[in-house]
């Protein structure tokens, strides 16, 4: 949902579009393992010259760069979503604070830290116009009324910032996008009568909403489901959906004015031969106005938030 301190007046010349794609690392170039090599992802032919793997990153393109980011933060074991996402959205080393990796939810023992500082809350406090584009279906709100302790990190960010959650009504009005992009699963699994849209339709909603936000955030998690082999739909359709969505954004955003930052919390999707997460570095894509600065500034998950706010500061209209 959009919320600002200045009645939706942009404070910046240019937008930051932060795309969080769950569980995507940089792995090996083998078709039997890596969907980026078994499926013809157009983002790796029409935007980048090839798909990423250990031996060819960083990858350059006309608009920016793709490079690896440390998801382990020096701790053994598979990186996990809870501490990884807290590090991304909180801007602090949640893995160190917890004493290791934890997931999929934010660890209860340190969850207070995400209420103290996170991208959502801090953007609003600094006076930036902000939009969290994701919408949530009815069962989520039924669960939320029980005041559960187990929530994902972005839900905690919404609650701490006071922006409110987008609902199905915003999906109907094309003011928000579901976490699975096309609304097909909302219709098939939950029975919600929301419009079925194309990945390009969803991308256009994102691009339109970004025009009125200094910072826009969108979260996609079905890549992690696919990596865990928990996705019960057609995998080729999933690959095609996220590829078309990203391709349309990458090809149609204002690269001279806006900056796209695509990040992930750990590896998983890039090796579907195993059901677990991987030790691979997470994938980061930076495109547009400030893309060239990203590889120097971002080395691990906790450095992503700092870079987002550095861009926002540089984008401010004097």
Q: What's the CATH H-level homologous superfamily?
A: Alkaline Phosphatase, subunit A
**Domain module count:** 1
Along the chain, the helix and strand elements come as EEHEEHHHHEEHHHEHHEHHEEHH
Q: How many strands, which pairing sense, and closed or not: the largest β-sheet?
A: 8 strands, mixed
Return the structural class. alpha/beta
How would you describe the shape? globular
Terminal residue distance: 27 Å
Secondary structure tally: strands: 10
CATH C-level category: Alpha Beta
Oligomer: single chain
Mean pLDDT: 94
In short:
The strands form two sheets. Strands 1-5-8-2-9-10-4-3 form an eight-stranded mixed sheet, sandwiched between helices. Strands 6-7 form a two-stranded parallel sheet. The chain has about 325 residues and is an alpha/beta fold. A hairpin with a 3-residue loop joins strand 3 (about 60) and strand 4.
List the helices and strands and how they pair.
Blueprint: E1 2-3, E2 16-21, H1 35-38, E3 59-60, E4 64-69, H2 81-90, H3 94-98, H4 112-116, H5 119-125, E5 130-132, E6 134-135, H6 138-144, H7 153-161, H8 168-172, E7 177-178, H9 184-190, H10 199-210, E8 215-220, H11 222-227, H12 235-252, E9 259-263, E10 282-288, H13 294-297, H14 303-315
Parallel strand pairs: 2-8, 2-9, 5-8, 6-7
Antiparallel strand pairs: 1-5, 3-4, 4-10, 9-10
Helix pairs in contact: 5-7, 10-12
């Amino acid at each position: 949902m959009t919320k600002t301190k200045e009645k939706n007046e942009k404070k910046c010349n240019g937008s930051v579009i932060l795309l969080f794609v769950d569980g995507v690392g940089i792995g090996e170039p083998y078709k039997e393992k890596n969907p980026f090599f078994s499926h013809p992802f157009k983002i790796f032919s029409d935007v980048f010259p090839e798909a990423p793997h250990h031996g060819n990153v960083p990858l350059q393109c006309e608009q920016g760069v793709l490079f690896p980011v440390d998801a382990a933060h020096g701790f053994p074991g598979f990186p996990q979503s809870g501490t990884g996402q807290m590090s991304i959205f909180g801007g602090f080393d949640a893995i160190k604070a917890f004493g290791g990796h934890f997931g999929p939810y934010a660890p209860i023992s340190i969850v207070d830290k995400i209420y103290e500082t996170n991208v959502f809350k801090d953007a609003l406090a600094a006076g930036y116009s902000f939009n969290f584009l994701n919408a949530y279906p009815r069962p989520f709100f039924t669960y939320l009324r029980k005041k559960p302790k187990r929530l994902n990190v972005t839900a905690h960010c919404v609650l701490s910032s006071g922006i409110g959650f987008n609902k199905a009504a915003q999906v109907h009005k094309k003011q928000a996008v579901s976490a699975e992009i096309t609304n097909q699963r909302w219709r098939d699994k939950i029975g919600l009568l929301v419009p079925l849209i194309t990945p390009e339709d969803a991308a256009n909603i994102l691009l339109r909403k970004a025009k009125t936000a200094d910072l826009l955030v969108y979260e996609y998690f079905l890549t992690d489901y696919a990596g865990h082999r928990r996705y019960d739909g057609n995998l080729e359709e999933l690959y095609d959906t996220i590829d078309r969505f990203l391709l349309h954004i990458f090809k149609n955003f204002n690269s001279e004015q806006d900056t796209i930052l695509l990040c992930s919390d750990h590896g998983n999707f890039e090796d579907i031969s195993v059901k677990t997460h991987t030790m691979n570095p997470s994938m980061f894509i930076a495109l547009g106005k400030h893309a060239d600065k990203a590889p120097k500034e971002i080395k691990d998950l906790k450095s992503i938030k700092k870079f987002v706010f550095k861009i926002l500061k540089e984008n401010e209209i004097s």
